[in-house]
Design goal:
Structural class: mainly alpha
Distance between the termini: 47 Å
Shape: elongated
Helix content: 40-55%
Radius of gyration: 25 Å
Order of helices and strands: HHHEEHH
Number of strands: 2
């Protein structure tokens, strides 16, 4: 549900476009069926609601943010998988790029909102002494 809200928040026009396109296609099908098959009665408010709800469901599914994407590398059997979420909640090894001096102070050199700053805050309690001490 959160990915849908994020998708609509960042791409409201795209969500509206998906809704409008699917509504137009479905309503065209309904009108075509009622024209070519007069015995089938698909008119009225109930059918309008069915088309509107179906269009809203389609727009919701189309606009949601994916949990991960895969990027195939041409001419190889390699794929790069990019996952969205909290890197610190994932299992396995993590590689976090930093500069050659590994700045350790939060503030001016290292933003609290950067991946480097979050690593220092979460894994080392915001203190540089935990990893700067030599064995």
């Amino acid at each position: 549900m959160r990915s849908v809200i994020t998708g609509i928040k960042y791409h409201p026009w795209r969500a509206l476009t998906y809704f409008g396109a699917s509504f137009g296609v479905l309503w065209t099908l309904v009108e075509g069926l009622t024209y070519f098959l007069p015995s089938v009665d698909l008119s009225g408010t109930p059918m309008l609601l069915v088309v509107a709800v179906t269009s809203a469901i389609y727009a919701t599914l189309a606009i949601r943010r994916p949990a991960k994407i895969e990027i195939p590398i041409r001419h190889t059997n390699t794929r790069i998988e990019v996952q969205f979420g909290d890197i610190f909640r994932e299992d396995g090894l993590r590689v976090i790029p930093v500069n050659e001096f590994f700045d350790s102070e939060l503030g001016l050199p290292v933003s609290k909102r950067s991946l480097h700053g979050i690593l220092i805050s979460r894994c080392f309690g915001g203190h540089s002494q935990a990893y700067l001490q030599s064995p």
